[in-house]
Structures
1.
Amino acid sequence: MVQRIGVIDSNTGGEPTRVVISGGPNLGSGSLIDQRERLRTQFDEFRSAVVNEPRGSDVMVGALLLPPQSPEAVAGVIFFNNVGPLGMCGHGTIGVAVTLRALKRIEPGKHLLETPVGVVEFELLNDHEVRFSNVLSYRFAKDVSVDVPSLGSFTGDIAWGGNWFFLINDHSFDLKLANVEELTSVTWKIRKALAAQGICGANGAEIDHIELFGPPLDPSNDSRNFVLCPGKAYDRSPCGTGTSAKLACLYEDGKLKPGDLFRQESIIGSVFAGSVQPVEGGVIPTITGTAFVNAESTLILNANDPFRFGIRP
Ligand code: PYC
């Protein structure tokens, strides 16, 4: 009658991560890409139960811990949000690291985490601070124009940072928390226009994250962003994969040298500090951020509860 799922919640710069530590589905064997596909096609009720209302919210990102494929890795992980699985998740990686530490499963130091889009190395600097080196990140296309109904034309770069991003520097919007409704509406229209006009990432991949940049409010930072995530929530953190995409573009433009530190401020003022290491085909971004565990609970799915699998379209 009742299914129980053990979770630990944390926030990374204000953006939540809910790590599933028990009661998750058996996704079978095979690569993490195969397992992610099984999560998408066979266990969508589980995904929705964990992150969607009434237990979660549109902004919640889930992280399903899995046995690693390589004994050198501390875990495998599949991240997911209110609409489906993700590729990588930067704030989620920091949340997973801090959660593993709270569970006493890891010590400070370097660890490997397997994700569907590649292996990520993270260093637990202390109980709350984590530095991770992301998957290969690169700019796919520069100065791409998109016509957005009722808004006009926008020019941006398409880049990969573990998810696909459209990055816009040139716009007239004020990146203030008070304006998130307008920013959400604008970026949602941009996302729809990109899809309608067939503007995609590599191999026709949908660009499902839109990122606006502007001047930081805190002068000790380099930039401020607003990031629209695939399910229409905005990222409260500076977005690890979005910051990676930005770093890749800055490097390509000659505006960031290896070893330079770039401080990306989020729409709520939280900060990730990043740098790049150039490699064949792009850069490996390294990003430092902070997370705190803020809940440890058991989700209860009662067979009589019509909303046990969350509210989903
Ligand atoms: O930090 O990479 C990130 C992320 C992706 C979606 C939400 N956060």
2.
Amino acid sequence: MIRGMLHFDANLLDPEVEAQVDELLAKLSLREKIGQMVQIHVHDGNVEASLELIAGGHVGSVLNYYEASKLNRLQRAAVEESAAGIPLLFANDVIHGYRTIFPIPLAISCTWDPELAQEAARIAAEEATADGTHWTFAPMVDIARDPRWGRIAEGAGEDPFLGAAMARAQVQGFQHDNLESGRRLVACAKHFAAYGAVEGGKDYNTVDLSERTLRDVFLPPFKAAFDAGAGAVMSAFNEIAGVPCTANAFLLQTILRDEWGFQGLVVSDWDAVGELIAHGCAADLREAAALSAGAGIDMDMASNAYRQHLEQLVAEGAMPAAVIDLAARRILRQKCILGLFEQPYVDKSRAAHSFLRPEFRAKALEVAHKSIVLLKNEGDLLPLDRAVRRLALIGPLADDHHEILGTWHRIGRDEDAESVLDGLRAVLPETEIICVRGSNVLESEPAGVGAAVQAVSASDVVVMVLGEAETMSGEAHSRAYLGPPAPQMQLLQAVYEATTQGPQAKRQPLVVVLMSGRPLVIPWLATHIPALVQAWHGGIRAGRAIADVLVGNVNPSGKLTATWPRAEGQIPIYYAHKSTGRPVTGPGVRQFDEAFRSHYIDEENSPQFPFGYGLSYTSFRYEGLQVETPVVDLDGEVVVSAMVRNVGRRAGDEIVQLYVHDLVAEVTRPVKELKGFQRVSLTAGEERRVRFAIPVQELGFYGLDMAYHVEPGQFQVWIGPASSSGLEGSFTVRDT
Ligand code: GLC
């Protein structure tokens, strides 16, 4: 929690708010209550029709409509023209910034800095509320272990522990209780649930997993969001084991309400109610409305099923009126908590000077710095010598101001962004920079290979910026092949050849910066390119952040939060895998080294780059692991520490990680699970003992009886720089 940073709990049952809701409900007709349950998409082409619906009391919320003056116009229709005068809830996808666009959430998670994520969310809330938004469809907290899935870009990667920390932080930031805008923003954890487990990484596809995996892996970030007070949740498009989430009473009632006591509102995803027909669970929209409302969907996004059918369903006795009352209550509760009855309109003069403030842009730069992951740096090629006279900057993303914004950048603008060229010009004012696009992100043949090769021959060092367009990740953008697009690989290999010609002394060092919304499959780059920097889609300050890292103004500290495969065929691949009955003995083992073990005949088991991995311009040595509590009770804390020393020549941040393994349990347990991380800043030569105190109750799982518990017995523990290495110890949890 950032000091002095207060956030409100939108789940809180405040007696005054409940009394206000009671009073409102008592005045509403059934039709008006149903109106609260309807969310419509307004755009410039349907404003008049929407105003009519709103004035008729048929709408409770509007999504994806922007700008204070436009929103005030809709609000006046609700407050001053409709009979009940209930204000609208204005919702938008404020995923990684509103106008100050931050790096994509997957990049932010690579900072391993929840406080920073919280700050970024608060800034997004400042800008969005100043412009009239009340509710953001964020944080996206889906665990993703399949980089083919385009929406891996929107979350915090593959691990439930880190995902929960990021979920909590974002909710606290979005729901900051003292925004300068004088408004509030409700957070919405999505997509409930297990959307990241779609088969084949193909968006909207089937999800079929055990209740244990659902509870152990996919639900913890949602629970963390709700414990932080998130006021809403969005149901996912997918089914789980045959039951679509949008008609899933086990999810929406048993878990969310009965077990967790969630008091907020549940909104469906876009037309997910109507999609029950395509799922084959509803014969028509009437049945879809009945199934969704009956399962616990309080608000219907954009399908119109509720507006068309709920009143008739109640009249026919097919839908208890109590269901409508409860849904309307939850929606009105959020409107009261947001203060919409007291302040329905937004002061449109605020918006203009609320965007892109210097401190917001500075924070976006800090997040971009810390999200960059140094994947390879052979021979300490980086940082570049600032005295370099001529630098060739090549690639379709070298002077890009759009793709850099990433997926879900919404009202973010290209003109707000700095490209890598802008950044390098700022940090290397004396250097001649020859910038050549060389290829488009996607095209049949790279058109500028000749110009690129010429630029190489006229330079002392070569930096290439390659990767994905922002539309190659995000919703409905799954990929089956995960390398940089083919024309860019052709360009790269031509440039690589050009840098390996001529006398050794004349050969230009080659650095590749990758921009993407997901882990990429880059076996050729990983073996041939000496310096590799993963910069994600880093937002409006990414160009300067990348330049700062390339010249050493900033020492990179980011660490991967999703595994990078060697090949698509390894997917799903993640560090917290199970042992199986035939585990291989170590990374790099192939079939013929160990017959009849769990691996491939044509690829290693180990990933290209593992979860938790990231290099620095300095080096850190881990020594002296101490398990201070070799035996610990079920209600105790495991205390483990290690000395971390900066043995390099410059200061740096190191993200120290703690993993455990429950050796024997009534159900199989992952070979490693992250249970702690700390970011430490160490000057050259400085050392610090990094200490973790982990509540034993956090080492549990859902057992044979599907109840959460910790099983006494022996645990292995590691403290290290990544999931693939570290100092090992052990401790015993004893039965008390
Ligand atoms: C989309 C997405 C969801 C988003 C919603 C509103 O289809 O699945 O994440 O919040 O619609 O834009």
